[in-house]
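Could you please consider the sequence and fold appended to this message?
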Amino acid sequence: EAQFYFSIKNLHTLSPMYIDAMFKKAALVMRMLEHRIGLELLLQVFNKQLSLAMNAAGQKIGSGLWSHMLIST
């Protein structure tokens, strides 16, 4: 990160080329996961994450606790 002029942790300071490369890389990672574990298991993981997020969003907790949510599937 030291070689970049602006922080790459904030989407507002990223260049459009960097964002485009990040989206392409994310799509490739998703396809790699699908090929590795299969579509059905990948969808189960996404559904589990969605249900965990929906349950956590309904509870009155501090915003700092979101980082403690772990993938357990």
Notes: The chain has a mean pLDDT of 82. The CA atoms of residues 5 and 34 lie 35 Å apart. The two ends are 31 Å apart (CA to CA). The chain is about 60% helix and 0% strand.
